[in-house]
Amino acid sequence: MKTDRSISCVSASVIAVGFSLFWLWSCAPEKPAEKTAAAGPPAITPLPEDRVRLSNDPQKTEIFRDAGLGLFIHWGPNSQMGTEISWPLNNASDDYIKKYYALAETFNPMLFDAAAWARLAKLAGIEYVVFTSKHHDGFCMFDTAYSDFKITRTPYGRDIVAQIAEAFRKEGILVGFYYSPGDFRYQFETGRRSQFLMAPDFESEALFGPLRQSFVDYECGQVEELLTKYGDVFMLWFDGRCEPLKKHAWRVRQDVFIGRGEIPTPEQEIPGRPDDRAWESCMTTSWQWSYQPNPDIRTAKEVIENLVHIRARGGNMLLNVGPRPDGRIAPPDEDLLRELGLWMMLYGEAIKEVRPWTVTNEGDIWLTSRRGEETVYAFADLEYGLEGTKAPAGCRFTLKSVKMTPETQVSVLSQAGGCEWTEDANGLHITISRDHTIQLIKNPLLKAGLEPDDKTAPLTWGPDWPVAVRITKVRPDR
Predict the structure, then answer these.
(1) What is the pTM (predicted TM-score) of this model?
(2) For the chain, the helix, strand and coil percentages under 3-state DSSP, each to the nearest 5
(3) Residue 46 in domain
């Protein structure tokens, strides 16, 4: 009986304590609910319209031009089928459109690792990233309060943009977001399909999304989210007519750099003339912007030559990859980025923080100059079996636009020695031999049906890419 009474007392005590805790909890003031990422942008006070500067910040413009090489990333639920992003919606039937949009219901990139992407980009010599926060199809890769058609409503359920911003910033890479002013989802759900896929109807008052916003308010709200929720955003990239969005972006953050929408951004081409202002050539690693199975991938040499020609003409290269639906960078793109990274490790000094020289090229030799210095870089292809050199590969060239001074030095970047030069009335004559052992490749002479001097050497030192020659303390030969 004593034991039973002890148990009863303990039970009564437990009940009393529990009742007291419940009473205290029920009488306590209600704790405010934690705000989620989709609660909208932090409260800000945009600059008055009459005080905003409607142009890029000059300092940010120079930072952009110094960067030289960016990584473009097109990604969305469409990657599950290997289609181009958004464009299949153009001229499509309602039935196909519904199937395309239903891909969001199965989008679950469980192998996505933003840190791995950022590390790969860093190795490739990338200085800034531009990620598709919203493409023309209207799908948002961020947790927006203005639309339910977003990554956080998929099986994956996490904010991709937030992870991209954190990971790339950690690697010292400038963060930029692509945003499409055209929004086919808005057109489709509000019955305004008369508009072209990319055409933003900023005059539309049709209400859209959980906050029931007109088109311009919906998009200005999302731009505000991108500029206030994800840390230090260096760039916004508007793919289409964007006047109200661009102005609102500068009202929210006066110093944000606007890419497309403010500077020339040709796609898949390189302008033929040099332009000593900010511009950017957008190039794909294959031919489709979004992930495509079995792509026709560009060679590293082609990408490197494009980069050299763009930088010699004063522009940046924005190189695009389309990740797989599971979240990984496709192996062909990864291989290409690693090859580019090797070249940038060797010769990136001639690509970053440079401007056009007095001429872009002298024949096959392309030129850049170090900003604020008396240094010129010459990019030259190597010749295998060059007569008079001991190394397996070398080249000779003459520059007429470069004048030596008594302090001039000439060297191959990343290599000790292997460089000779003289100057006369005909110009600066340079001979280089590649003595730096980087990779083993099949001897190009054998590929061409020729015999190398060393008959026992089917392999030689590569890779078969341009080298960069540094020429210091020079002046232009006017």
Answers:
(1) 0.89
(2) 30, 20, 45
(3) no
Question: Helix, strand, or coil here: 397?
Answer: strand
| 148: CATH | 3.20.20.80
Q: Report whether pLDDT(356) > 60.
A: yes
For residue 440, the surrounding DSSP H or E stretch is: strand 439-442
Helical H segments across 106-265, by residue range: 114-123, 160-170, 184-189, 215-228, 243-252
Give the C-alpha distances (Å, rounded to integers) separating 85 from 106, 115, 130, 449. 16, 24, 16, 44
Residue 377 lies in a domain: yes
Task: Give the residue with greater pLDDT, 289 vs 196.
Answer: 289
Q: If DSSP codes are grouped into helix, strand and coil, which group holds residue 42?
A: coil
Residues 159 and 280 in one domain: yes
Q: Look at residue 39 and tell me whether its pLDDT is greater than 70.
A: no
Q: C-alpha distances in angstroms, 307 versus 50, 222, 314, 326, 350?
A: 40, 33, 11, 30, 11
Residue of 271, 302, 270 whose CA lies nearest to 286: 302
Two structure tokens written together for 280: 């950017």
| Identity of the amino acid at 401 | S
CB 377 within 8 A of CB 477: no
Burial of 278: CB neighbours in 10 Å, binned 0-12, 13-18, 19+: buried
- Summarize the confidence of residues 466-475 as an average pLDDT: 97
Spatial CB neighbours of 99, under 8 Å, sequence gap ≥ 6: none
Give the strand order in the sheet containing 354-362. 354-362, 365-370, 376-380, 467-471, 410-412
The span from the CA of 222 to the CA of 225, in Å, is 5
Counting every residue, how long is the chain? 478
Q: Among 183, 136, 192, 150, which Cα is nearest to 37's?
A: 150
| pLDDT surpasses 60 at 21 | no
Give the ranges where 292-356 is alpha helix by DSSP (H): 300-312, 331-347
**Domain end marker among 322, 352, 382:** 352
Q: Measuring CA to CA, how many Å separate 433 from each of 391, 396, 416?
A: 6, 9, 11
End residue of a domain, out of 282, 317, 352: 352
Question: Considering the chain, what is the average pLDDT of its residues?
Answer: 90
Residue range of the domain that includes 112: 58-352
